[in-house]
Amino acid sequence: MNTDPELSEIKQLRKKHGLTQHELAKRADVSQSLIAKIESENIDPTYSKVKQILFTLNNIEKSTELKVEQIMRRKVIYASPSDTIAKAVSVMKKNAISQLPVINKNKVEGVISESLILNFISEHPEDLANIKVGAVMDDVPPIVSKKTSVSVVQNLLKYFPIVLVSDKGSIEGVVSKADVIGNVSMGNTKIDIKLRKE
Q1: Which of 35-39, 42-46, 98-102, 128-132 ranks highest by mean pLDDT?
Q2: Is there a contact between 35 and 185 (Cβ–Cβ < 8 Å)?
Q3: Domain limits at 76?
């Protein structure tokens, strides 16, 4: 019997969360013998039962997953659009960071990074003392809530230098690739389960 990928993940996910077959059966409201037969590949379970079990495992996964508020830096260091590039570079050096959100009157207007500044310098080798951040900054980075999972932020950081964290309309934190790498272990990585109806 060829087990579907979804079925083969049941045992892996159960063990990941430290559940016995009996505990998983109780939570999913199915029999322990059904779990045992699925894991030993001795049964073709009905779609509804598989969905029930995987739904339970997915909920456990979500409840144990790391949230962005647990890894974000609460001190948000930022630049103003009217700051000079020289000042922005100085702030980045002082704080050992490579990018800054650009905020004006509590409103996020963009992001400035070392790579943007380097690209600008190569194309416009003028005196940086007179160039403003607003002339160089990139678009507004993603803004997520404090309860967003780290796996979501991890995906966003593939395309953006930073992700900002908002609470009730106010920017409360910032997350960079370094924050994610420093805080996420393999055990926190979400496994997405897709069900196929037969």
Answers
A1: 98-102
A2: no
A3: 69-183
